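debug: dumping io for the single-chain case to check the tokenizer round-trip. Nothing else runs in this session.
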Amino acid sequence: MRIDVLGAVRAFHDDGGPVALGGPRHREVLARLVAAEGRMVTTDTLVDDLWTDPPARAVGALRTFVAALRRALEPGRPPRVPPRVLVTEGPGYALRLPREDVDVHRFEDTLARARRDPGAMSALGAALAAWRGPAYADVTGSGWARRERTRLEELRLEGVELHARILLDSGHGADLVAGLGDHVAEHPWREPAWGLLARALHRAGRRADALATLRRARAMLVDRLGLDPGPELRRLETDLLNGTEPGAGVRTSWTGPGVRLGPRTTVDLARTLALAGGDALVHSRRDRLAAVEAAERTGDLRLTARVIAAYDVPALWSRADDPAQSRAVVAAAERTLAALGPDCPADLTARLLATVAVESRSGDLPEARLEHAGRAARRAEELARELADPALLAFALNGVFLQTFTRPGLAPERDRIGAEILDLATRHGLPHFAVLGRLVRLQSASALGDLDAAAAHAEAAEQLAATTEAPLVSVLTGWFRARETAARSTAPGGPTAAAAAARYRAAEDALATAGMPGLHRGLFPLALLGLRLLHDRPAPTDPRLDWGPYGPWAHPLVLLAQGRDEQARAALAAAPEPPRDHMQEALWCLTARAAARLGERGIAARAAAGLRPARVEHAGAAGGMLTLGPVARYLAEAEACAGAD
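debug: decoded output
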């Protein structure tokens, strides 16, 4: 059988005959199960989705709808034979049909193939032609259907533009002018559409009209958004002025599902630059904030929400590279959420909340802000699961991951999150989140002392990076290779401590130009200190070392290495509790070591309390980039000191 939802909801038997689906509620139940993509939807969720104020017998009514649908979908099913299409599963129901038998799934899969392979252009054209109107057109008044319509409309617009781009790239497309003109008129915020229209006009021999189109696009972007056109439009205008074939030599890349949230602004460029690292990453942060501020100046709340939420770049480190910028983005997201209130679509709400969680990751945030960010992360995850949006869920889980540093000992929890991100990314074609999942699991396996598993994740991340143009991955895995060498340098016949130090130095050189100061500053001295502690040697005392944010916890050991015990005691007493970030176990270990050496029982007791939840872990950048060795070693020292007479 076949089910169509790209328009009014309808179904057909194998012989082409229509299925009598019943009334509006019957159709909505079927549509809601289609939107779940084969996953089970609980009875409670279906009731909540069908009724704003469920009647007393809502569950009974739902069962009646399901029974009627089963009779309609499988009219020849004998009594007492279990249904094969609309099945009962656990506490709810699921629709069991091949994806090619449901038009919306067929469209999504075709679009995903076309992103990877321009040869799928014909199939994409057919999939676009299958749209008969707005998705779930006859399911009105339901929040879930509104959200799905919005999401699918964004995919349709992307498909229209991708189809046109492939045609133009292949040397055709003169006949696209009328269609693209209508497309631009209806969606003037979509910057790529202006470029496609200009290219189609040029292909039709209308160079002057093509240049006029680009001038209109520039005027719209500058006057309405305060933004300059992106590099693609600027390059296209230069090509037209120089008489060069537009798009010649330019490789179009569609590597993932993209942002499903609306207009193409300079924030999309910032998102791309962020994945490149180095100066591009630095510029991406600047451009992102400029785009957010420009969007706020327009007074268009929905546009502002989309611009803020579009920057769904995977984030691994729990200390912000630019804390001021992060605070500004969080403030803008929270202002926009408050202004939109209950009118904010659930997918935008989830993305804004996830943005709050991802950007609230500076290790020195106040307790109240950390708790707020944790709540935002959990709510974003809940909404993403309800919406069944894989890309949104991966981004929300990124926020959840960055809020799992509330206490030591949570490596297993982070591994679970990394595994789910990796699974989502693998199944739904989200390559950059697949890299994130691997790196999270690398950190977790390393923290748990499983260097073989961590090495396997490092290799897999590097292989993914080779196909997704993510140069920062090799910088991060280079640190893991150094950390691995350091750990193995304590074993008989293993590499020397000097070899480990050389690897750390090489990793430091690579990181210095990566554009990640929140990760870079202080990491190399801390790695050297960890290496010395592994070999029971005193802390390094080179005054040129910049300990960065880790100075308060490293200085007592440096002073002890210099024989300045009283100054070390004063520095230890002044050191605050370690921030809740990747380094908290490592910093507690430094505190424990200094307290034990100085006989400071009270501080040793606090360090022991901090370290006990992580007693089976290894300390250092949550395990993935440097190591101080097993936490248990430092915990034993602290407990012995705290319990001494």
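debug: round-trip ok. Confidence is low (pLDDT under 50) at residues 249-270.
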